[in-house]
Every structure is written in structure tokens, then in C-alpha cells.
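Batch job 17 of 40 flagged for manual review because the log was empty.
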Amino acid sequence: MRANVWTLSLAVFLSSLSYCHACSCMISHPQDHYCRSDFVILARVKKEQITVSTGSIVYKVRVRKEFKISEKGLVALKSGKIHTSIYGSMCGVQLTIGKLYVLSGTINSLRAYVNACNMIEEWKHLTKRQRKGLKLMYKHGCSCKVKNCLYHRCNNSFKQRDSCVWNSTCETLDGICLRQANGSCMWNKNKMLTACRVRNGLVHGNSSVAAGNPHYHPSPPRLPLEP
């Protein structure tokens, strides 16, 4: 029985999907979270209000910085309210009062929503490059795509002009995909990314080899299933 459970868990892990019954999310690079979100903010959680009748949680937050925000987002976040589902099966997330988070999400009916498929990370856990990406550089790479090759080897056809191949935790922590002068997209060279690749045996001289056992940020904590 335990062997069957382990086999199933491994299969789910290798499929690059995070499951919580009805909630499933494709693993995304921080830059992708930034580029596809209606808002990306740095906010401290002040209060929490649970409404069982509507199946929702409203977090009162103090926005410290707006990394990216649409016009509708500006209106929605004036109230300092962030909405999510009360149920983990609906991709609801649980935030801790007092903690400082990077939150990405969507705007719907002039309300700001977050879920387990968004970027929900404590600020203190982000690397210097991730912080720089949020503050300045990710926005310059939104015309590029990050191709997820974390848990399977991508063949050469995946290396396209408009994409960067994401195949190790080094790109997660220190990678910023930018369009170069020749028009193609490449990981922006920096000392931290190079050092990470060398340290993990991904680069030998000018050659790169397949990554070994890469991982992504843990998913935000799921909430209880709907009764």
C-alpha cells in the first residue's frame, strides 16, 4: 500500500503539477508570474476575515510596494483587501498575519484575488536576483517565454528564438530571461547564476549539462477541503 502511494506521489511530482483535488497548477518561473499577473505587490498582512457563507477569505494588507499593477488594480487595491477561497480544493491560500509577502494575482469585478497558482512568497525567502527581477528586470523580459524543462529533458527544438530553457533551480533563483541585441531570448548573464551552475555541476567550461534534481519554491499552504 505504501509503495503504491509513493509511486503515485512520484508520478505527480514528475508531471510538474501541484495537485490539491480540484486545484491544479502548472509550475511557473517567477518571471512568468510577474508577466501574466494583473498585479504584483509587496504587502504585509494585517487582518483576516473569513466568511463561510461565501466561501471566501479577505485579507487586509498594507501595500509596501507595487512592482506591477494595472489601472483596475490600483482601484481594487485602494481598499487594501486581497480575496481568496476558503477551500484548498478551490486553490485558496493561507497567509500569516504580520508577514511580508510578494503577492501576484488577478483583478475581477474590481477585486484583487490570489490563489495557489499565483506567486505567494515571503519576501525574506527571495534571492537578490529575484528581488531585482521584481523591482526592475522581469518587465523587460515579458516578450520572452520561459520553457519549463525542469523534470524532463527538452530536445533542441525547444530552444527557440523567443524562449529561455528552464532546466535547473539555478534559473529559478537567479535567472532573468531577456531579449538580447540579436533579437533572441537568453538568460541574462550574472555572477550568481554562473556560480550556481558551476556549483551544481551544470557548467563545465563553456558547456552545459542536464540539471540534477531541481526544485521550485514550495507551494503556498492549502486550506481545508470543502465539506
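Reviewer: the log was empty due to a logging misconfiguration, but the result itself is present. DSSP finds six helices and 14 strands in the chain. Unflagging and moving on to job 18.
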